[in-house]
């Protein structure tokens, strides 16, 4: 990991990154239905991102940037070239990075073929690697399109194509120069969990949560936001009627973490993890561990439910009031 960081250009020439946003796979896709996008949640997340970026806090949309035509569209796309040419700027703070999970894209292909276990000498694994990347990059394109329709100048970036790789599933090489250059000229990079090459296993799956942890270490954002399908981290699966939302978690220098709010009694002081059978990236367990690693860097992490007033406030960095609903993970220092 240290070696991967040392290979990066110095990002200090760019403007400080305000926020890295993780769009959880379960939040923006229908995980029970193969390759199905949660259209309303994705639209809401993109609209709130634009509102959080707006210098004025306004919700008016600027001219859209998706000028492509899909099969079956009755008319050509509307391009407001004159209006755009007269604009002095977008009025947006674009110093955001977006990373999204795969949800119902990619996980099925990876788990059926065993891509996450490695072994490209196997025809099944090689075919699964190709199928997984087709799936996750198609989702990435749809998310970039959704952001572009909100007037956000976003560009999709594949970790595999950028040369990111692992060694025994640990991040080994991660060239972020294209991300940094894109931020510098005002684009919003959009990355995703991906199938990548592994020095010892041949290949594996690099999760979006690991990508966020590395980018947080490199770019030192003001805060990181995880948008999920639930309000935050619970002491047990949130489907349990007795589940308690953990409002604040502190992480010390050793990586150990403790629940600050609420004060749990009896044996109910831990967190019970459940991971879907098809999830090849570790599910909530990976999310918590990576969020704790980010907090150790001195960067606050906000986890909350997509498409709510709480997600908008998290994107704006406004989580200090008692009525904000979510989980804050921060350093104990």
From TrEMBL:
Gene name tied to this protein: LOC102707821
InterPro entries, A to Z: AceGlu_kinase-like_sf, Asp/Glu/Uridylate_kinase, Fosfomycin_R_FomA-type
Single GO molecular function: isopentenyl phosphate kinase activity
EC number(s) reported in the record: 2.7.4.26
Residues that hold substrate according to the record: 102, 107, 208
Keyword Nucleotide-binding among record annotations: yes
Gene Ontology CC annotation, any one: cytosol
Residues annotated as domain Aspartate/glutamate/uridylate kinase: 93-304
Record-level GO BP terms: terpenoid biosynthetic process
Keyword Kinase (UniProt): yes
Record's signal peptide: none
A Pfam family: AA_kinase
Positions of ATP binding: 103, 229, 283, 287
Listed name of the protein: Isopentenyl phosphate kinase
Family: Belongs to the isopentenyl phosphate kinase family.
Keywords associated with the record: ATP-binding, Isoprene biosynthesis, Kinase, Nucleotide-binding, Transferase
């Amino acid at each position: 990991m240290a070696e991967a960081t040392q290979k990066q250009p110095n990002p200090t020439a760019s403007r400080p990154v305000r926020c890295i946003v993780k769009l959880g796979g379960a939040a923006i896709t229908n995980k029970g239905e193969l390759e199905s996008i949660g259209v309303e949640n994705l639209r809401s997340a993109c609209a709130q991102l634009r509102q959080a970026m707006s210098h004025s806090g306004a919700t008016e949309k600027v001219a859209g940037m998706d000028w492509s035509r899909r099969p079956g569209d009755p008319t050509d796309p509307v391009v407001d070239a004159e209006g755009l040419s007269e604009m002095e700027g977008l009025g947006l703070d674009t110093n955001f990075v977006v990373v999204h999970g795969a949800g119902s894209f990619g996980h099925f292909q990876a788990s059926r073929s065993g891509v996450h276990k490695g072994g490209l000498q196997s025809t099944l694994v090689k075919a699964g690697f190709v199928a997984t990347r087709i799936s996750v990059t198609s989702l990435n394109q749809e998310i970039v399109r959704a952001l572009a329709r909100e007037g956000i100048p976003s560009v999709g970036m594949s970790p595999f194509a950028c040369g990111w790789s692992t060694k025994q599933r640990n991040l080994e090489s991660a060239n972020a120069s294209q991300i940094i250059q894109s931020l510098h000229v005002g684009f919003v990079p959009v990355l995703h969990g991906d199938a990548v090459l592994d020095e010892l296993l041949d290949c594996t799956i690099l999760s979006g949560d690991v990508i966020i942890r590395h980018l947080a270490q490199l770019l030192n954002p003001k805060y990181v936001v995880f948008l999920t399908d639930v309000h935050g981290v619970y002491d047990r699966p949130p489907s349990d009627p007795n589940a308690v939302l953990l409002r604040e978690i502190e992480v010390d220098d050793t990586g150990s973490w403790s629940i600050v709010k609420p004060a749990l009694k009896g044996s109910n002081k831990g967190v019970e993890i459940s991971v879907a059978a098809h999830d090849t990236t570790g599910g909530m367990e990976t999310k918590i561990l990576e969020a704790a690693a980010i907090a150790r860097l001195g960067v606050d992490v906000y986890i909350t439910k997509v498409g709510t007033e709480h997600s908008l406030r998290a994107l704006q960095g406004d989580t200090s009031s008692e009525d904000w609903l979510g989980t804050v993970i921060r350093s104990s220092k």
